[in-house]
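Sharing in case it's useful to others searching the archive later.

Someone asked me privately for the predicted structure of Beta-lactamase-related domain-containing protein, so I'm posting the question and my answer publicly. Question first, with the sequence:
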Amino acid sequence: MEAQLDPIFQGRVDSQALPGVAAVALNANGDVLFSKGYGNTISADKNSPTVAPSTPAMMWSCTKVVTCVAMLQLIEQGKAELTDPASKHYPPIKDLKLLKGFNDDGTPNLVQPEKEILLLHLFTHTSGMAYDFFNADLLRWRVHAGQEPVSYVTKSSMEEYTSPLVFEPGTRYEYGPGIDFLGLIIEKISGMRLDKYVDKYISQPLGLKSTGVGLNDEQLNNFMTVHAKDAEGKLTPTPLRMKEDPEVMPGGHFLYSTTEDYAQFLLVLLNNGTHPKSNVQILKAETAKDYLFTDMLPQVGCSAAGVGEVPSIIAAVSCEGTMLPRAKKGWSLGGLTNYEDVPNGRKKGSLAWAGLGNCYWWVDQEEGKLGFVVSSYLPFFERDALHLADALERAVYGKEMATEIGEKGSNFSGGDYKVET
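And my answer, the predicted structure tokens:
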């Protein structure tokens, strides 16, 4: 596998097409199929630490499925139900208005939603919530309100959680910060701060010593620096990090981890809630199978339109493209699911998602395989990162490497920069 992947991974790092990157693939027994790092924590600084699967990095939205598992634990205990109105556990959510376009004078037209947000809606991104960097109307609203766009990571203040809905709850899918509200609900039900709950009931039982909300001094010195890449391909290190003590602990993106640590969490999902080596169980098998590996959009009553589609509203944040562009897809209570085998990778019924800093994972129960690629740069869904994620998946399944992203059989399409006008 190294013979296939080294030229692709090392080649892009050496040419500074992307910064340091790590990748891990495991089988269902926890045996290592691939585990390697490339490059340095600061792209142009060869004296900075080398990247390895043990290098800490921001997990971005890879955090979401961890928060979903935490919420499912509470549902298993009978402390909540999927059909509960979210306001039963977090009353302020009822105060959110619905953005119905803009008036002639440019002011937002805000109305009271007709439908209630359910826990099911928060899990499945059907609550009406959106990210301002993926939704032009919400971005326009935030600017009009005098708020800083794209401040979910840099601030994580309550301000981000008073944004209006952009559609009626339960009527369609749009990827957004609903999981952040699940985090707030976990805190209300458990009486614990979200990061403390995750540490006690997920990270500690699984022995994930490098997974949490903060970084110690050693981890700081080895941290995979977040870079910005412009349309000309130049990489620039940034000081961007998740706040360690934010006003709101965002369930959608608060975690730091390492590639190898997070892969152990994915291994538990691969085995329906139980780690195959330690036998530690964090979810019942039926919960994992029925909720994490099953499309839940039919239960919501809406279509899968938009699932896997990545828009580009702000060029510095995200490129545009599609995950599994030719496969029928759905959304479970943990991520993207596919109804069909992928020609050059995962089998039907797999679970997958990603993180904004170009982190990509999948879990395939039918084949008993998982993979995780971690880089640390923006914009998201950038072509070079997609090529690495696609390459790892192809190698794990013994397929030939793609010559370019978007060719027939690719696991991704797009990855192109938005041209600002």
